[in-house]
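User: Fold this; C-alpha cells only.

Assistant: Input:
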Amino acid sequence: MAEDIQVKPFLDYPDLVALMRKRGMVIRNPKRAERKIAQVGYYRLSGYYHSSRRYYSDDNGNKILTSEFQQGTSFDELFKLYLLDKQLRVEFTNALERIEIYLRTIIAHELGRIDPQAHLKPKNFTKDAFKAGAVIYYEDVIKRYNKLIADSKEECIAHHQNTGRPIPLWVGCETWDFGMISKFYSILNGKNKQRICDRIGVTGKDSQDIVENWLINLNGIRNRCAHHARLFNRPNIRGLKTPRIGYFNTLQLDLHAKNKLYGVIAVVWFLLKQIGTNSQWIRRVADIVDTLPSLSGIWHHSMGFEKDSTAFPRRKFPESIHLEEKIPVLPSHEVTKQAFDEFIASLEQLDELNEDQKQFLSHLPAALEDAYITMDDKVK
C-alpha cells in the first residue's frame, strides 16, 4: 500500500522569505519581500520564478527542475516581472473590450439585415450544429442566449420585455460575452461566416476557420485577464492561424510566435486597426515589453519573439515607434555683442517708447542671452 503523501506545512511570511533566500534568491529587503508576498501570495509569485529555477538533464535528456534558484535571481526583478504582467493584462483587457463590442455588433448587424430574429432561423446555421455528436449544438447556444436575456438587467432588454415586443438580434447581443460570440459564430453557415470575415478584413483561403480560431484564443486570453492569471509567457489556447494578407505576410510569424503572446499581440493589433486608426495600444504594449526585467530564465523569446531578440520588434509595427520630439536647432549666433547693443540703444531712443517700455528694453539683452544659453544647452 502506497504511503499517504503529506500536505505541505504552513509557513508564515518571514518563513517564506527565509525559504526563498535559502534556495538562492537574492532578497535585499526581506521586509519588503514579506509585504509583497502578503499582497499577492507566495504561490502566485511562484509562477513567475518557475523558469528561474536550476535544472539538470536526466539520462533520457529530460529537463528536471530543482527547488534551487539560478545564480543572481533577484526578488526585486521578480516583482518587476509580476508588475509587467499586470500591465499587459490591463492593456489586453482594454483592447478585448473594444474587440468584443465590435464583433458582436458586426454579427448582429449582418444577420439583422437578413432577419431581425435571424438567430431563430435554422437556415442561418450550419447543418452540423443540428446533428448528434456536434461539438456545439444549435439548441445549446440558443438556450444560453435565452438565459443571458432572462438574467439581463439592461434597460433595452427590459423595455422589450415590458412591452411584449420580440427582441431583435441587435438588441439581444448587448447581453453577449466573448464566449457567446465565439460559440454563435462557430455554428453559423458558411455564407454568414463570410459576411463577418469580410467586415473585419480577413480574406482569402480558410478565412472562416481563421476567425473561429481567433475567437477561441481571444476568449481564452480574455478569461486569463478577467481572473488575473499569468499572461506573458503562457502558451495560447490553440496555435494561432493567420491569413495570407499583407500585414501578416510582413510579420512572418513562425510557429513559436503563433503559440505565444506575440501572435496574440499581432492579431489584437490587426483587429484594433479595423476598428479605428488612432489607437496607440501597440505603442503602449511595446513600451511594456521593453521593460522586461533581468531575470534568469526569462527572455523576450518566452513571449514568442525571435530567439535572440532583446526588445519589441518595433520595425515591424511602425505605429509602436515613438517619434522623437524635434527640438528646433537655432542658427549660429553671428551677431556681435556690439551690434546687438547698438540695436537696443536705437530702440530706446524712439520717441514712441514710454518709461516702462524703456525699462523692459534695458533688461532685454541679459534675458535674451539667458534664453539663448538655455536653448543651446538643450540642443547639445
